[in-house]
Every structure is written in C-alpha cells, then in structure tokens.
Amino acid sequence: MGLIDALARLDARVLPRLARGLRRADRLTRRSRVSPLTVAAIVLVAAVVTTIVWRMGEPPGGVGTGSSVRVGVSDGDSIPQYVEQSRSDLERLAVGSSPQPLFALVSFTTYLSPDRVAALVAAVVATGNGDLTTIRAHARVPVPRRQTELIHLSADRLPDDLVAEMAAVAVRKISDASNYTQLAQGESVAELRASFEGRAALAQIEATAFRGACSCVFALVVRAPAAVLVALSKQRDVRVVDAAPDVTQLDRAVFLPPLPEQLDTVQPPPDDGESSPAAVAT
After folding, report:
1. Do residues 73 and 136 share a domain?
2. Do 81 and 174 share a structural domain?
3. pTM score > 0.85 for this model?
4. Which of these, 11, 40, 176, 238, could form a disulfide with 203 (CB 3.0-4.6 Å)?
5. pLDDT score of 25 more than 90
C-alpha cells in the first residue's frame, strides 16, 4: 500500500521531467557524436538516482523524525490472518476495558461514498456506547486493473469534509490531466505519447469521480474506547477494526489498510487495463 502511494506520487513528478530530459537528449545527440542510447541511459539513471535520494530524504512512512508505529498490512501479508488477529486483539482489549480512547484503523469491505461513511459512523454513535472521533479517510477511485492514486482525506466533519476534500483533489487531477495532455501533444516518440495519453485519461476519470463525491473511501482512522470500536466492527460494510493502543501521536503512526478487493494476500493491483469511465463506481 505504501509503495503504491509512493509510486503514484513519483509517477506524477518524475515522468514529465523524464520526458523533457529525453527531448533535450535527442537535441544533444543531433549535435554530437554521442550515441542516443547512451544519453537515454544517462537520463534514466539520473532519474532513478534522484528518486532514490528523494525517498531517502523522507522520514520512514512519511511521518516526522523518530520511531513510528505501523498499523495495518504490508505487501505479502495474509488478509485472513490480519482480520483474525485484529478481531482477537480488539476482543482482548474490550474485556474490562476503560473508557480511554484508542486510535484504530477501520477497513471496509467495499468502497463507500461520503454519505455512506457518515451514516455508518452515525449508527454507532446512536447506540450511546461512547464517543467516536473520525480523523482521516483513505480513498482511491476504483478503476478496474488500474493503479489509481491513494488519497488521504480529512474526516473531522462527516460527510462535509470528505466531499470538500474530494472536490479539491478533483481540481488537482484536472491539472494533472492537462499536463499529461500537453506532454503527449509535444511528444514524437509513439510509446511515450501513448503513455501520456493514457495517464491523462486516467487523471480525468479520477477528477470526474472525486468531483461527484464517488464511492471511493475504503478505510477510516478513528479514535474511540474499545467498547465503541467493537460496536463499530459489527457494522455492515466494516471488514475489520485494527485497534492500535501503541499509537499515542498520529504523526508517529503509519496506517496501511487493505483494499476491498484484496481478499487473500496483500499485493499491488494490476495496472494493465484501459481507462474506461464506464467502469468506475459512483
């Protein structure tokens, strides 16, 4: 999950720069005796090195300095084992538990709209078991066989914050689509041009989905007493609630929920499909 998110952000930063670098390399080879393949290799190596340096410059997990706590899953983990262990841990915490609130990662069985997330939380609050604070949502546009960007959305006020943040992401995606379209129009290499065109189409699909407050939320970070977390875990569309008693500061925690379509083992979704608007859930 963390890898997919990082690659999505790297893709938007590195590819446009790489395309510009290749075009400069092409002009250079026309004026010199340097092999085009050699120059292209140099550009690619430079891009990789820059990427590595940029990643090394970030604190682990994208959080502040110091040790961090990972909550959720990693590539290669067994989903059934994760669900079973999280349920067992939550039941243990709930036995004779105090009203002290705990941070927790709530993973859904499907992608939910902002209204559906709000209704789910309201149903738990209505039971009167205690306070439930929503903090952040994890979302992505579920395009079949495409790796869309993983987004973090503020979830303090539901559903208003989710809708507002999705609208802001939509504006950014429209800009991304425009940038990729411009790169495609100025690209003479057929493979690169097709790649840019595909990414422009995907960014436009994401923009349209987020602008319409799509069913794109697949996890929620909350804070509540163990008894309330148990009530939350029994709600429809909730796959599992992963309580995190070791988390005391959000900026020292990395939350990695599984995607709804990940049923067996955690692995990146395929990225070999076409960007078809008709395939996106709304």
Report:
1. yes
2. yes
3. no
4. 176
5. no
| Dihedral sign from CA coordinates of 258, 224, 70, 4 | positive
Is the pLDDT reported for residue 215 higher than 90?
yes
Structural domain count of the chain: 2
- Residue 19: give the domain boundaries: 1-58
Lowest-confidence range among 87-96, 162-171, 229-238, 267-276?
267-276
Same domain, 197 and 239: yes
Asked if residue 99 and residue 229 are part of one domain, the reply reads yes
Give phi and psi for 272, each to the nearest 5: -125, 15
**Region class of 76: left (phi > 0), else alpha (psi between -120 and 50), else beta:** left
Q: Report yes or no on 63 lying in a domain.
A: no
Q: What is the rounded distance in angstroms from the CA atom of residue 36 to the CA atom of residue 5?
A: 33
Cα atoms in the 13 Å half-sphere on the side-chain side of 217: 30
